[in-house]
């Protein structure tokens, strides 16, 4: 043993010191494995019953760059037109439902705020075409809160500004895979419940 360690720790304590060092190394290795093992987080300790569920989707998102563009009225994601309807509608198109997942042993259904926000943008766009309504008013206030919550502090000096974002494609992949694992056949009552849970049902996203 290092002479300095021999001075600090008498021989009677040396086995304890080695055990503690070994335990520390094992703990550090397990911690590194836990935090670097893929994007999916371990949520097995949640029952997903009542209030016992995580505050966010159990996935670790990478950081990506996005150039915010100053677009004209006839470009992508414009206000009116059939192409605009297709583009906005495609933002939350999934195999089974609009941005919903089933989590936990009992397959509890949750909405994802990202797609609630996309839905609200579509509803605000529709209200600009067809007139204001209570749903659009809710969505306008919801988007105000979402902007404040995210507090993007990117400095904007030119028209096209690069922002650092969470990788939204990972969210799309997670939801698509989750929905592909939903039970293939649902009863009429379940289908009715799914329609009630989905805020998009019955809305024209023109």
Automatic annotation (TrEMBL):
Disordered as annotated region, ranges: 183-206
InterPro entries noted in UniProt: UstYa-like
Ranges annotated as biased composition (Basic and acidic residues): 191-206
One family name in Pfam for this protein: UstYa
Record keywords: Membrane, Oxidoreductase, Transmembrane, Transmembrane helix
Family: Belongs to the ustYa family.
Name under which the protein is recorded: Uncharacterized protein
Pathway: Mycotoxin biosynthesis
Chain ranges passing through the membrane: 12-30
């Amino acid at each position: 043993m290092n002479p300095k360690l021999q001075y600090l720790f008498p021989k009677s304590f040396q086995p304890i010191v080695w055990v503690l060092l070994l335990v520390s190394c094992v703990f550090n290795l397990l911690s590194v494995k836990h935090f670097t093992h893929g994007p999916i987080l371990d949520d097995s300790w949640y029952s997903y019953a009542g209030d016992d569920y995580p505050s966010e989707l159990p996935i670790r998102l990478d950081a990506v760059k996005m150039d915010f563009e100053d677009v004209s009225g006839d470009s992508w994601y414009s206000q009116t037109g059939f192409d605009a309807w297709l583009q906005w509608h495609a933002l939350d198109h999934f195999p089974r439902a609009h941005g919903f997942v089933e989590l936990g042993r009992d397959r509890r259904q949750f909405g994802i705020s990202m797609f609630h926000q996309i839905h609200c943008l579509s509803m605000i766009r529709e209200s600009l075409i067809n007139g204001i309504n209570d749903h659009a008013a809710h969505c306008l206030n919801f988007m105000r809160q979402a902007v404040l919550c995210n507090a993007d502090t990117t400095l904007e000096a030119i028209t096209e500004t690069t922002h650092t974002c969470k990788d939204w494609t990972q969210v799309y992949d997670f939801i698509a895979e989750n929905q592909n694992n939903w039970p293939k056949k649902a009863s009429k009552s379940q289908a009715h419940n799914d329609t009630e849970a989905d805020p998009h049902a019955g809305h024209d996203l023109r």
